[in-house]
């Protein structure tokens, strides 16, 4: 079963970040959530809240769990978790992947969603 879990342990976040994205990182601040499958963290997402909304900083999944629709589920669940409060949601980098959720460019490197759309192409009904 897949579930989302808040993560506060610095070592766990750092290790997961390096396994997903490679390279070193400083401990990210903000809302840190892991995608958990059968008790093991397989994904990491970070967002920062600020006065004007929430900015998604990163979403990633371990390489061995990619191409199984788990990353798509994680993205949708994380965005849903952030948007239930009604605050605007931004992505701080451009990626056409997010356009299917209702995001559009804001400047050269940001995306904003007026309304989040959840297309049903991640294997569910």
How does this structure look, described?
The chain is α+β, with helices and mostly antiparallel strands and 125 residues long. It has a seven-stranded mixed β-sheet with strand order 1-2-3-4-5-7-6, sandwiched between helices. A hairpin with a 3-residue loop joins strand 6 and strand 7. The protein starts with a strand and ends in a 12-residue tail after the last strand. The mean pLDDT is 85.
Structural class by helix and strand composition: alpha+beta
How helix-rich are the residues, as a percent range?
Answer: 10-25%
Regarding quaternary structure, how should these chains be classified? single chain
> What series of H and E elements makes up the topology?
EHEEEHEEE
Main β-sheet, spatial strand arrangement: 1-2-3-4-5-7-6
For this structure, the CATH topology is: Aminopeptidase
Supply Rg: 14 Å
CATH architecture: 3-Layer(aba) Sandwich
Average pLDDT across residues? 85
Number of domains as seen in the coordinates? 1
Number of strands: 7
Q: What share of the residues does DSSP label as strand, in percent? A: 25-35%
Q: What is the CATH superfamily label?
A: Gcn5-related N-acetyltransferase (GNAT)
Tell me, what is the CATH class? Alpha Beta
The low-confidence runs, each spanning 5 or more residues with pLDDT under 50, are none
Gap from first CA to last CA? 17 Å
Characterize the overall form: globular
Report the sheet with the most strands, covering strand number, pairing sense and barrel closure: 7 strands, mixed
